[in-house]
Amino acid sequence: MTHERRPLLGYAMVLVAATLFGVNGSVAKVTLTSGLSALRLTEARSAGAFIGLTLIAVIYSPASLRVTRRELPRLALFGIAGVAFVQLFYFLAIHRLAIGISLLIQYIAPVLVAIYARTFGHEDVRRRIWIALALSLTGLALMVELWKGVALDGLGVVFSLISALVFALYLLLAEYEVGKREAVPLMAWGFLFATLFWTVVQPWWSFPTHTVGKTVSLQGHLSAWHLPVWALVAWVIVLGSIAPFALIVGALRHISATRVGITAMLEPVVATVVAWVWLREALTAVQLGGAAVVLAAIVLAQTAKPATQLPQTGD
Prior knowledge:
- This protein is an all-alpha fold.
- It has one domain.
- The protein contains 13 helices and two strands, in the order H-H-H-H-H-H-H-H-H-E-E-H-H-H-H.
- The chain has helices at about 5-30, 40-60, 70-95, 100-105, 110-120, 130-145, 155-175, 185-200, 210-215, 230-250, 255-265, 265-280, 285-305, and strands spanning about 215, 225-230.
- Strands 1-2 form a two-stranded antiparallel ribbon.
- Helix 3 (about 70-95) runs antiparallel to helix 7 and helix 5 runs antiparallel to helix 6.
- It is globular.
- It starts with 6 loop residues before the first helix and ends in an 11-residue tail after the last helix.
């Protein structure tokens, strides 16, 4: 079945998705300060995204959810090592760092993937990837103000770097799996195994329902406003996961994965601006300069490797 390619629509879908992902960082950070742990928020997000993405797959293509027994171990690895851990370490990082810095460190992952593809995968990756690596390391040093002995929260930086590593692993696993099935059912299976993993680690019967039932301040410039925690969790699931992911997948029908990836770089920009306006998270001039250098590195990395239609987890 062929679809008419409408590039403007594709770009619009990615921009909306990146904006939703960017806003989601601040929503998640407020949720985490309510008393709900990063592990529990990850568990709730995984379960909600699994239900939503599965429903989308059932409505549009039920057969796409079929898998063989031999595929299950790979999908389990993808769901646990990729989907579950990417979310967990991102949430742990933003609990200690400014959202924009956490995201930009995590987004070094495409640079790592391109380096892996050239070094170990023997793929045709342009040499500009080494420039991208140098830029990303320079930008990272500026963002953490390395000459001050890492001015940021050390554990937060470690969580962000781990998030970048597991995000790179997620991209590599997704690149392999996406050639075998469509993105929505792949992510549905990924979120299923992530949910099963967290259910074993922290059973649902011990879920802190008293926490999600209380009302909390939205903090920062919105401190006078209050919402129940369950509403914030619902935002993280629906508008921070299912909706933007569906938009990203839909955009791949109209523009290439490389263009989607580059356009999605709006996410850390939106996340930084929203956190500044809402939560009063401000970056120094040097950190903003470092962020710009990292963005340049990520764009180079996106164009250094041939385009592949990878599903995006978002944050």
